[in-house]
Input
Amino acid sequence: MVVYGVNPVAEAIRAGYPILKIYVDEHFRDREKVLKLAKENGIKVVKASKKKLKEISKTEKHQGIVAIVSPVEPVDYGELVEKTISENGYLLFLDRIEDPHNLGALFRSADAFRVTGIVLPKDRSATITETVVKASTGAVFYVPFSVVNSFSTALKEFKESGGWLVGLEAGGKPLSKFSFPFPLGLVAGSEGRGISRSTMKLLDEVVEIEMGGHVNSLNVSNAVAIGLYRVFTERFILNG
Output
């Protein structure tokens, strides 16, 4: 897998992911000391032309640095559930998120608000690509994720293990007045369509974000960020 951009490459190194090689522009200015970090971790650094960097990264937005990284592998779903239950934590279930930029932004929010892990369906969902890594600014290297064959079955297994499922969707209870139960599975739907009917039937509760503007909806990554902040403050700040 190819990772490009100063912050994503730096985070890949810090997270300890196996980086095979780093290519840098001949005139790269290492203001963030990424190359020093690479040297300390024994990673080979090769100087390359802008043309070469574009060929490797398939973009001109590489910021002068590109890394070849071993693929980010999903973790076992059962282990992720067990960890969430034992730590009284919370999982983020993403029901058919198709835009890689949104998925990357969701990983970034998940990292910021201490999500135990992310659950993705195998079909009709964006996967971890270079675009997702870039959009997440490297957060994919810190947030464990699982890919499940059946999203509905995964939700049922989480409930059977003692977890609660709360959907983030218009028409639910006001988010500002809702008290989240833990261990929690926060469920968000796809761009445009929201949470699927089959998933809605499995939810314990549904909450909505109250808004006061002229536009009556938010981008899914923005909505989830707000929801996760609320969950984070309730789990780790308000209740210690």
